[in-house]
Amino acid sequence: MAFVGAGPGDPELLTMRAVRMMECADVILHDALVPADILAVAGDSARLVPVGKRGFGPSMKQDEINALIIEHALGGARVVRLKSGDPGIFGRLDEETQALEAAGIPYHVTPGLTAASAAAAGMGVSLTKRGRNSDLRLLTGHDVKGFAEQDWRTLARPGAVAAIYMGKRAARFLQGRLMMHGAHPDTPVTVVENASRADERHLPATLATLAADLDAAALDGPAVLLLGLAPQASVASRIAAEAAARGATEHAAAR
């Protein structure tokens, strides 16, 4: 039984071990965010089973996913549980490994590239930088109880950097909490949609404009919010040009 990180979406960012595990699998239980290009890596005889969970949307219950994993593993199949990004970062890995432990089923984990790393790379920036931030926070925008509370005072400090997963719907909440705790309204926040994929899109904003900019952009793909980071100047110029081109196309289509 193998847990495998599918990375952020670009098949070329799969690890060699991830590819080998997928090619050898009899059954692949995969997240909703794993794109078709990555599922195509599976062997021809592999059975692909969607077990997706989407925030604020239809989702398979975790107990049902656990039961499916155990059923296929006990049946003798070579099972891959394919998780978007890295299995250990907001991927419910512990809940599934604990179920396997209880059932006496051995497993191993193949890590994957997480969305925050791919998003920062696409912006031409690093997640850590001497003289700017000596730590990096990986946060979730919401948890089982609703919008997730954080150490806002620390996050509001100048130079703080955080990657916020599942944060689009929580943008106004994040904005309010951070500014309430002293974050400067001009703090950069870049939203990266579909990191590493052909349709990757960057939305540069500030803390003051974040919620309004997200509403106007109407992003519908998976996104990570990078608090405290703005794209490199050359990347920002390209983003502006692409946004202008999109606007012209949409205007022409509306006429």
Tell me what you see in this structure:
Its EC number is 2.1.1.107. It holds the Pfam family TP_methylase. Pathway: Porphyrin-containing compound metabolism; siroheme biosynthesis; precorrin-2 from uroporphyrinogen III: step 1/1. This is uroporphyrinogen-III C-methyltransferase. Strands 3-2-4-1-5 form a 5-stranded parallel β-sheet, with helices on both faces. Strands 6-9-12-10-11 form a 5-stranded mixed β-sheet, sandwiched between helices. The chain has a two-stranded antiparallel ribbon with strand order 7-8. It is 35% helix and 19% strand. By secondary structure, the chain is an alpha/beta fold. Helix 3 crosses helix 4. The chain has 2 domains: 109 residues, Cobalt-precorrin-4 Transmethylase, domain 1, CATH 3.40.1010; 137 residues, Methyltransferase, Cobalt-precorrin-4 Transmethylase, Domain 2, CATH 3.30.950.10.
CATH homologous superfamily designation of the largest domain: Tetrapyrrole methylase, C-terminal domain
Number of domains: 2
Number of helices in the DSSP assignment = 9
Summarize the main sheet: 5 strands, parallel
Q: Return the CATH class of the largest domain.
A: Alpha Beta
Shape: globular
- Uncertain segments are none
What is Rg? 20 Å
* Alpha-beta content class: alpha/beta
Please give the alpha-carbon distance between the first and last residues.
55 Å
Average pLDDT value? 92
Task: Give, in order, the helices and strands.
Answer: EHEHEHEHEHEEEHEHEEHEH
- Give the strand order of the largest sheet, numbering strands 1, 2, ... along the chain: 3-2-4-1-5
Task: Examine the secondary-structure arrangement and name the CATH architecture of the largest domain.
Answer: 2-Layer Sandwich
